[in-house]
Amino acid sequence: MLKIALGQMEVVPGRPDINTSTMLDMIAEARRKKAKMIIFPELAIPGYLLGDTWEQQAFLRDCEECGRRIIEASEDICVLFGNVGVDWGKTGDDGRVRRYNAFFIAHNGRLCGGENFPYPFRIKTLNPNYREFDDTRYFYSLRKLAPELGKSVEDLLRPVFLNLDGETVKLGCMLCEDGWSDDYSVKPMAAINRNGPADLFINISSSPFTLGKNNKRNRVFSRQVRETGVPLIYVNNVGIQNNGKTVYTFDGYSTVYNGRGEAVGYCHPFTAELKIVDFDLAQKGENLPPVSIPDDRGIDSIYQALRYGLSKFLRSIGMDRVVIGVSGGIDSAVSACLYTQVLDPENVLLVNMPSIFNSQTTRDLAYKLSSNLGSLYCVVPIQSAVDLTARQISETPVLNLKDGSKFYLSVSSFVLENIQARDRSSRVLAGLAAAFGGGFTCNANKSELTVGYCTLYGDEAGFLAALADLWKHQVYELAEYLNKYVYGTDVIPQEIIDLVPSAELSPDQAVDEGKGDPIIYPYHDYLFRAFMERWNRATPEDILDWYLKGTLEEEIGCRPGLVKQIFPGPRQFIEDLERWWRQYTGMAVAKRIQAPPVLAVSRRAYGFDHREAQNGTHYTARYLKMKKELLESGS
Amino acid sequence: MLKIALGQMEVVPGRPDINTSTMLDMIAEARRKKAKMIIFPELAIPGYLLGDTWEQQAFLRDCEECGRRIIEASEDICVLFGNVGVDWGKTGDDGRVRRYNAFFIAHNGRLCGGENFPYPFRIKTLNPNYREFDDTRYFYSLRKLAPELGKSVEDLLRPVFLNLDGETVKLGCMLCEDGWSDDYSVKPMAAINRNGPADLFINISSSPFTLGKNNKRNRVFSRQVRETGVPLIYVNNVGIQNNGKTVYTFDGYSTVYNGRGEAVGYCHPFTAELKIVDFDLAQKGENLPPVSIPDDRGIDSIYQALRYGLSKFLRSIGMDRVVIGVSGGIDSAVSACLYTQVLDPENVLLVNMPSIFNSQTTRDLAYKLSSNLGSLYCVVPIQSAVDLTARQISETPVLNLKDGSKFYLSVSSFVLENIQARDRSSRVLAGLAAAFGGGFTCNANKSELTVGYCTLYGDEAGFLAALADLWKHQVYELAEYLNKYVYGTDVIPQEIIDLVPSAELSPDQAVDEGKGDPIIYPYHDYLFRAFMERWNRATPEDILDWYLKGTLEEEIGCRPGLVKQIFPGPRQFIEDLERWWRQYTGMAVAKRIQAPPVLAVSRRAYGFDHREAQNGTHYTARYLKMKKELLESGS
């Protein structure tokens, strides 16, 4: 029986000192509990998402030194951990010193696994380079190393021989993506086993939460375990890490699979935890009873990730007080509820900022919400400042210093809308937050961010956009979840949920008259999702194609019959499609470039996970042809 | 004699329709001029920096269709061009349809080069993945394809056989990075020539301007030409492309090298141009006289790139009017001069926004500058709005809705500084710009951006940060260049150049008393540059090391003797070092995440070229040890 400790630790990115100290504590605890082996996540010492910190040689040396301390601590216990592996004598493709994303196996104060490998550590074979991942930028992969040594990748994929109490255990050591090889021509698990066979696979990961990822991971990993017949232990970290524009939560959910591919143990999600399993290698772990792992595709998982991410992000930037503008609408209400879950209500200041366009209805709802939450609350009207701004713009003479002439500018109603939005955020909220000793939040959702239906330096501003990876319908779902399961009472008044969504910036958006946003969420949420999240991003060409085939609603996932209901005919359908496509690829890009960090939950979040250029709008030749034919057919 | 046309075209990223039309025009012109061959840049049809647009299958089909039109146009002329090469039957590492960054050779309506290659086009061998480049994210390289086919990369690197008037020409076809192989284990030029030899190398590129890049390119390319004895033609595009956060200019500078590695012809930088050369293949181009290519390391090249980039960026986003806040300081003065070079002065509105802290000196200088430029000008005082904001913050009761108590916030002088900065940008400039029908500029420089010495939604805001890749000393250099060479008169008053740099946000920054910024530019410019631009990014460990060795000034490039002059001893030196390192890795990161796009000129610009995470400050163990020893030694 092999007593194995799963070290599901919180990794603090860029802090090898803190991480090493966490690991030393966990090693001591595992030793006390008589474990023979402890497994830590990928890049446990440096962290994973560090930007170009990898180019600091002092940082690399620091990580190596921390690694030595862990190796020294491996007396009587085998310590498996991720760290950067540096070859100071070689360069990577960027010409700098060569770095590997490496798997270290330390036992009795020395490293194992160098016998049949060019380094005293193993290295990652598959370096992901999609979504938020930039592995190829920073690490040299086994796929590149092999041809350099005149070998095939498969040749180098061999188990590590470990002597545990006189018995040899053949470990199949993998790093994260190595277990997700479906899209690659190299299959590390199969290759290691062919060159073994292996007794046990270990996958150390640093894998961010994405809605439904674990369901998929259990399928993908179980299948490979069944194909090889070799049990597998997956260890992932918890904590948060970011690429600047996008903040990721790491859910942990470390899992033990027996040789039949059944999960026989797992660590709790979003929880730092040392889990001990008594693993019978001869029985391939079938001594342990199968367990059922919770589904991670629902709104409850989103709530868990957001709450965890918010709490960790605030701690990481040293912020313990926030200011939230509450309009009486749904987004700010959900935002207020989330923050009040992770901060004491006395550290949450909700602010209502009415202008002449705000109804008594929403003002009352903002107060009711705040009252339900028991937070701090104040009302700062913006009308006088907005009037002053409009006056200064329209009454200040603009001099032409070439010819001495002068003229005056005028303030349109559209200009006035944005003046209001900026007045609220950049003047009032930013000032209040500074005086309060905290930051102010951005409450924008993903639908708004997709088409730039928000004002730069206005409602788009804030230190974090916690809801910006949720479509509007998910914001509503989350509101109901918060009331029902988190607060157990209608902390968000039902009227807020029932109210027509509106920015209330002009008479055209009067909620009491049922007027509101130009976005028809039950349709546009899904159209925007097709532009943004679909595997092969949909463009007007695809959308029009589906429209013509009558499969649009099915393809994008909105309610059947909706399209006919909204658009009298193709002309209106096309006008709408082009309007939002222009926004999505035009002004909205410019706005996103200056947007706050987004807390990611979906399989495609704005920021670093969705790279984009301010290139303007393009329609393919085929789209233009289809459109022409359709409109000329007179329908 | 072979008449070759270098098609140094402007590539518009994401617009295959426009680019194809440009190419067809150039092909027609080349044919009229009796050229036998025309060469277009890398990815001439789609453009290079497109973000995740590569995931739109409709876009890929559109590019393929445009490619077919170019191939059809190759009757009687050989057309070499870059386009995306799609293998619809295979996937890339991201699981999506496989894309290659491809080199097409079309002649008489069909493609050449497929005889000894798996595709009817050649593909890029080396995919750069550093700085702003994300090639590995989007394109499958020859390095990955070769092992998949059971071949070595070198096997696949063969010349293309081209029949020109009955004579066979062996072309060595390369894409951009393939010519920059120093840091890679694969050397495409040498390999192609070994498998040839080749008669002529063609390198098609999409290579952004970077200060001094062409000097280096001429060295690197000439050397390889000398080593192989094969002449080389390099064709690069002009125009601008961006990754959202960073805007790049493309300088073209297409160059012909004879077999001795001498440049024998080049296209003008930043100019769309069809250049015809009469190239004697038998003589390896030595029939043409060597030419001297201008140096591109000086302030004149920076000016050229900024002016070109500004002009193209404004056009690309459809903006023809700008508003610029002019404080009477150097940054806004340089900004105003640049914009007035690319826009009519009647479309440039300069705005002075005094508060009680602004001296008459700077107000007068702002007017004098505007008057020299003959632009539009207005004065919008901010004091009344700032007072209103401070009053609203301090006089609004904050209610505690849990216990019914209330309290008041207070406005510190630091809070008041940021209120002023935000009032100027988000309230006045943004409102004025909207009313004026344009955008407002961000005038921040790289020194400020490095340590976040600017206010979010304040002076850091704007549609573009045109000077944000220039250190403060470069801004001064540019000011003198503008006066001397561009305007030929002191359009920027000498007093602005002589004035102490100051934000004028408090009595501590009174310019008339010689008070100003906390940044000592003659030293900190170089310290910050060592953090940010140095090949192996310097950290406090490196800096302290050099300080102790007495080599600091030499290492970072500032004036000798300066460090001793500024810091009485190690304690003050360390305090200063840590202060700015904390800023650089702390609050400044948060600010840069929401900064406007930066116009890049250096070898390391903020934004996509410098990836960073909001991870806070770390000191290595060795730094902390050195610091402790130094401070304890009592010196």
TrEMBL record, chains A, B:
User: Known EC number(s)?
Assistant: 6.3.5.1
Q: Is NAD one of the keywords UniProt gives this record? A: yes
Pathway assignment reads:
Cofactor biosynthesis; NAD(+) biosynthesis; NAD(+) from deamido-NAD(+) (L-Gln route): step 1/1
Q: Name one GO molecular function term.
A: glutaminase activity
UniProt-annotated catalytic positions:
E42 (proton acceptor), K124 (for glutaminase activity), C176 (nucleophile)
List the InterPro entries: C-N_Hydrolase (IPR003010), C-N_Hydrolase_sf (IPR036526), Gln-dep_NAD_synthase (IPR014445), NAD/GMP_synthase (IPR022310), NAD_synthase (IPR003694), Rossmann-like_a/b/a_fold (IPR014729)
Keywords annotated in UniProt: ATP-binding, Ligase, NAD, Nucleotide-binding
Question: What PROSITE patterns is this protein classified in?
Answer: CN_HYDROLASE
Q: What class of enzyme is it?
A: ligase
**Assigned GO CC terms:** cytoplasm
Which protein is depicted? Glutamine-dependent NAD(+) synthetase
* Originating species: Pelotomaculum thermopropionicum (strain DSM 13744 / JCM 10971 / SI)
